């Protein structure tokens, strides 16, 4: 494979590449996620790609797109409770199912680290659903640490 990671504004491509990660979310949490709908995803990504704080990178082998990462440069402002700081926030990472376990996710996250360093940002943040064992294992291998937990209680 001759891999390259490039920034993209191709919302149609991202909408297609999103299917694998979205289907995983639907299978884990059907009460929260709608079934994948290309037209709706395409509209969504087309809309948010107009926001300069969001960036999308695809990993390619020649002309074939194998996966993507969607990041945001977040600037947390100082307030009465915290200091100001910047992070690179990973909204989504997805590698097409047939290309998983080949190091492509690792390469995409290495690109995210490179972007953080280029912008003098010292922290990358992300979240994933607790039942997504694949994500949990992946980020643990990359030495990501938990520092906050999000909990809920259903009320009937």
UniProtKB/TrEMBL annotation:
Pfam family, one: Acetyltransf_1
Protein's name according to its UniProt entry: GNAT family N-acetyltransferase
Keywords, alphabetical: Transferase
Signal peptide: none
Transmembrane parts of this sequence: none
Annotated InterPro entries: Acyl_CoA_acyltransferase, GNAT_dom
Domain N-acetyltransferase intervals: 1-156
An annotated Gene Ontology molecular function: acyltransferase activity, transferring groups other than amino-acyl groups
């Amino acid at each position: 494979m001759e891999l390259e990671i490039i920034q993209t504004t191709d919302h149609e491509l991202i909408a297609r590449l999103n299917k694998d990660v979205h289907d995983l979310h639907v299978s884990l949490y059907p009460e929260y996620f709608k079934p994948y709908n290309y037209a709706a995803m395409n509209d969504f990504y087309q809309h948010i790609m107009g926001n300069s704080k969001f960036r999308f990178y695809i990993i390619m082998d020649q002309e074939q797109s194998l996966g993507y990462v969607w990041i945001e440069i977040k600037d947390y402002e100082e307030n009465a409770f915290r200091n100001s700081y910047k992070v690179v926030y990973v909204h989504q990472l997805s590698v097409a199912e047939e290309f998983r376990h080949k190091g492509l996710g690792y390469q995409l996250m290495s690109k995210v680290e490179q972007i953080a360093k280029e912008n003098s940002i010292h922290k990358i943040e992300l979240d994933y659903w607790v039942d997504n064992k694949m994500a949990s294992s992946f980020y643990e291998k990359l030495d990501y640490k938990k520092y906050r937990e999000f909990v809920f209680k259903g009320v009937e």
